Amino acid sequence: MKKLLIAVVLVLIVVMLKSCATPMGPSGGERDEEGPNIVGTEPENGTTNFSGDEVTFEFDQFIERNSFRDNVTVEPDLGIEFEMDFGRKSATVEFLSPLPENTTIIVKVGTEVTDTDRNEMDAPFDLALSTGDVLDDATVTARLLNFQTGKGEKGNRVFLYPEPFDLTQRSRYVAETDTSGLIQFGYLGEGTYKAFLVNDVNRNRIWEPERENAQPFQSEIFELARDDSIDIGTLYIDSPDTLAPEVDGVGLLSQERLRLRASEEVIWEDDAEFILTDTLENEYTRAVPLYKSEQDPTVLFAQPFRALVDTMQFLIQANGVTDNAGNSLRINVEPFIGSVQEDTTALETISHNSGSGLFPDEALEVTYSTFIDDDSVIDSLVVVEGDTETRNWAPLEVANHILRISPPEGNWEPGISYEFRVWNPWLQEREQINPDIWQRNQLGGVELTLENGDSTVTSNLTLTDTEASILVDTTFTNSIFIDNLPPLEYKAIVYEDVNGDGQWNAGTVVPFMAPEPYTVRRQIPVREGFTAEVSVSYPNKESDTEQTVSPENEEDENSESSEPNDNNNP
Fold this sequence. Notes:
- Keywords: Signal.
- This is Ig-like domain-containing protein.
- Helix content is 5%, strand content 41%.
- By secondary structure, it is mainly beta.
- The protein has 4 domains: 41-237, Sandwich (Immunoglobulin-like); 247-337, Immunoglobulin-like (Sandwich), CATH 2.60.40; 349-433; 440-564, Immunoglobulin-like.
- Strand 27 and strand 28 form a beta hairpin.
- The termini are far apart.
């Protein structure tokens, strides 16, 4: 009898565990990379005179139940409490108290609901019900784009408050962007509203200005009438990076080899250096940044001009080293002891600067792993100019760990191909580099026209290629012509500097200040000898012809002139 009782208890435990666990799909086959979709609801979307106490969502696959629990809200935010129940491919939201009368209720399912393979939903889902005869039906849409890439990103949250506005309270409505950056508030009643972007870190629907970034749309408030469907515009999201990178640790691989690990990837100027001092802050020597680790770009190597001996302790500071946002590298590490290990780093090639090609007057720069102290690097260099091999190339320069091969008489010969056979001492062989050299007749240009700019206000333009090796940073009013561009693909960022401070301002919510006009144009093609004619407009700002450029159609509006660009006379 005792054995039978134990068996019954074990069976009950197994049944309970199965009923509580998230169902798992069958194993085997290719990995599922499609997120879950809602294929039906009970009751149907748009139901009026709803008097039930629960709603059910049917999915096309098994979902991770905790992700559903964490990503369901009921709007407007009226303190309606609810709990969850689950079937095999369904989820039910049960209301714990009667719903308010004559009210449109929206049960929102966020994009972070996942299947059992952690694939997320592509877009949020709204189930709207009315406890009265009428379903509110006004809608508000907007588009949120990354201010650097011009692309949409899902999961950004916009708060929507009806009047009267109390921004210290929970937002009555919240919407999340889908993968294209689109947000939509549906089933709204008539009234006056305020909307703005919030980086809602703790997901509590309350804007906490001291720790959460917020950005306004072009208009502070807007009016909604019944049946309205309005677009409040495009908002470029600027997530300001004001956090300086820090060195987490300094290691000595040898007396002449520093290894620094930073909190994020850093870049450095040509004259960047590290200053090493003793513990009394008397300068001992300086070090040059060499290169970043290919496996981990947060790790960089540097070489001092003087050996760091093991009889001393050192402090280190950086000059000219920043993150991509321009924040200077900070080094707050404890004093470290020098090394007894003599440097045995092998001299080898690391990289070169010809990825996007070279301009006619641009030198080829080859980066080595350590200071170039081997005569074979220069003695073994071969430059093939057309069909002619040259072994004693001039001009030639060695700058610490950089071999700089400059063009003859200031410019590479037009119509001539060049091959550089650079010596790699570690491999004891030459490495071949065949760069594209953009001659004047191969270069093109961009003529950019701003359709709805203010001729009394300066606009700023940055133009970069996809590898960010070419950068044009300038100002203009209505139009600008930029020539001598290699035939590559470019991205333009244009903004109107309304307050004249030389940078784009994304606006403020309190006190309200509208964002300065801003736009991003991607995929601008430049062809050899031609000028790409490009028209751009600031979203949310009407021109004299009341036409604006739609971000989703931006690639279709590039055109090229039919006349070659005379780039031989820059």
